[in-house]
Amino acid sequence: MKGLNLLCCCVASLLLLGTAEEVEDASEPTKRDRSHLESTLKLNEEKPADDVSGVLQRLRKIYHSSIKPLEHSYRYNELRQHEITDGEITSKPMVLFLGPWSVGKSSMINYLLGLDNTPYQLYTGAEPTTSEFTVIMHGPKLKTIEGIVMAADSARSFSPLEKFGQNFLEKLIGIEVPHKLLERVTFVDTPGIIENRKQQERGYPFNDVCQWFIDRADLIFVVFDPTKLDVGLELEMLFRQLKGRESQIRIILNKADSLATQELMRVYGALFWSLAPLINVTEPPRVYVSSFWPHDYQPETHRDLFLKEEISLLEDLNQVIENRMENKIAFIRQHAIRVRIHALLVDRYLQTYKDKMTFFSDGELVFRDIVEDPDRFFIFKSILAKTNVSKFDLPNREAYKDFFGINPITSFKLLSQQCSYMGGCFLEKIEKAITRELPDLLGSIGLGKKPNVLSCDVTGCGETPKNRYRKP
């Protein structure tokens, strides 16, 4: 009898153990296979390191010798609030995540880097969780860096963020992760947009900080989910800041596997309906529909479609990484074009002021008339007529009212006076950089050639600029 009781107890124990294991297995969601992520981003390939040091050295040389003198002389940074540092020139491509709160921005970064269930995974939840700007970058070991330290380090590209104040630096955090993907790219997670008056109580200029990151981002993911498709004032302001960067914007409809087919089609249409007034371009931005987190797709959903969408997004990300140097050179050239246009406009304002001034004129009143109505003096039209400047590249006329309110017109020199016997003319140097030096550097990358750094050091990155005041 005792033996029978013992046998029954053993069988019962086994049944209870099996039931507990089944309950435990059922409580743990199935993890998604990550092989497609590693193959698409080429994380397992042992590729030879690209020797970009020569290209970056040449690019820095061109910027400092041909662009920065004119930029500082005409105080371009006070017009656009964008001064390029050496850290920015050498920085990796930046991918920026924007969108409403709790749509899955942090979960997406955790998934791409495999940070789930690690001490350094970004905190996620159904409530607003991310209150900081989090920069995820490469490092030899897992480490957290305070924003004050990041801004003080001139070797990084974040030193200009000090201008937004100490309250913002307390909301800036960096995380170094030893991940192969971060050797080639940097991720930036942002606080979610909350459409209420609390948005104004962050303690720092949130929109200005977003604009700083937008101006430097190589790829911008604007993330939505099926429950947050409404567009409020803050989101509308965000898309105004994204104007002109439409080629870098990617819209992501996240958590798509939480909907049935018919509901997903309705949500997709509603998303376009909400965003249509905010994106004024002929070609709509690319929209990716999937679920970006480590758990497997929900059953009876379009897992094949979602997987293809995810692979397309990863290919898009990899393309940005592969074109790092081309994008960097194009960015510097675009910056040089804007600096040149600004210098030409300031020169034209100054020349008009000198022409209108007489011995008995009140200089302040004369210049006020010019600034208030520049079209009456053909300021902008003369720039278009005499130089190869596109009217679509001209800055806003109103911006120069504020610019000259801070910088008196008499504190500038004419472009014809910005020449020296040894250094040449500022305008000729920047025009040469735009038309010859930067395109040649871009061509050397396409042909697989290494730029001649030594000759650059000797000659100043090209032929000596002509000095119009030098006698033959």
What's the total helix number?
18
Approximately how much beta-strand content do the residues carry?
Answer: 5-15%
Number of DSSP strands? 10
Largest sheet: 8 strands, mixed
Percent helix = 40-55%
Quaternary state reads single chain
Radius of gyration: 28 Å
SSE string, helix = H, strand = E? HHHHHEHEEHHEEHEHEHEHHHHHEEHH
Low-confidence stretches: 19-26, 452-472
How far apart the termini lie comes to 122 Å
- Residue-averaged pLDDT: 82
Structural class: alpha/beta
Order of neighbouring strands in the sheet with most strands = 3-4-2-5-1-6-7-8
Shape: globular
Question: How does this structure look, described?
Answer:
This protein has 472 residues and is of the alpha/beta class. The chain is built from 18 helices and 10 strands. It has helices at residues 2-27, 35-40, 53-73, 77-80, 86-90, 105-113, 147-152, 166-169, 206-216, 233-241, 261-275, 303-322, 324-356, 363-372, 379-386, 397-406, 426-446, 453-459; strands at 94-98, 133-138, 143-146, 172-177, 186-189, 219-224, 249-253, 286-289, 419-420, 424-425. The protein has an 8-stranded mixed β-sheet with strand order 3-4-2-5-1-6-7-8, with helices on both faces. A two-stranded antiparallel sheet has the order 9-10. Strand 9 (419-420) and strand 10 form a beta hairpin. Helix 13 (324-356) crosses helix 14 (363-372). The longest helix is centred in the last third of the chain and has 33 residues, at 324-356. 29% of the residues are buried. The model is unreliable at 19-26 and 452-472 (pLDDT under 50).
